[in-house]
Amino acid sequence: MIAIPPLARSAYSIVSVILVALAYRAAHGQPGSSESSGSPPPPHIVVSEAYIRFVDRVTLAFQRPGVIAHLPIREGDTVTADALVAKLNDAVARADLEIAKAEAATDIQVRVAQKEAETAQAEYQAVLNANKLTPGTFPEPDVLRLRLEAQRTELLVELKEHEYRIAQLTRDQAEAELTTYAVHAPFAALVTRTLKSAGEAVTQGEAVAELVSTRRVRVDGYIDLADAWRVRPGDRVEVRIAAEQGLSLARQPISGKLRFVDVSVQTLRSVIRVWAEVDNEDGSLRDGLTAEMTIFPKSQPKPGASHVGQDPGPAAAVSASGM
Fold this sequence. Notes:
The chain has 323 residues and is an alpha+beta fold. The chain is built from five helices and twelve strands. Among the domains are: 39-55 and 215-318, Beta Barrel (Elongation Factor Tu (Ef-tu), domain 3); 90-180.
């Protein structure tokens, strides 16, 4: 075996380190570039492919079966909050409500029962007084009968008071049931679809119309796992519509707020889902458009900090080579 002088071994080690460093630089760029581990991440995060969705979209349905009597909307109409969208035939329900209101409107049966109780109690007390002045004036069976009658009429008052309370609850129930015969808009919106017509029968939960509010949109996208620690709900975002869609607002950034950062990781791509909310008062943003979203984290990285996904750098590469 040929012995290698110490000076030659030292030169061989230096050449090996230089070769590893050059190989790392060729693969990862110059150490001074933004891709190097020595440089902090940029102050913003760009989501190059994001999708716009409307926040408020609802499909309306009836809470009960019936026949549609009134459908005042058409596709393309705008409705205000709580506006009538559709109504079932409610003639029977309205009649039931009027009966319930009449029964709950007066407590006359309670007052009649109270008078009967007062009369029975007075008769019983008169018999007791007579027997007290002249014992034996009224035989014991008559006294017992009058006492039981007084007790019965007292219970009758309680019964009529209970029935009066039930009548009020029945009225309230009839009023609540009547509201299930109509469907109202939960917010100001545009009617995008009508699925039924007047005269058609519907089942409980069957869709009647679809409404969309264009005032708010959400912008969905994904960020790298390495950037997840930097973003928080409430961070400012700017959204730009993709220029290839030919819209005049493509170059105009639209500001909004980050509302959601997922707690789960898409393992195949090592990304995390996020979405922001943006005002759309003029209705220029449409569902399905693609956009670029820039997130401006409130918490910026500290110099020298180590984070998930950070490149280990050439020193680690040399160490891993066994030198």
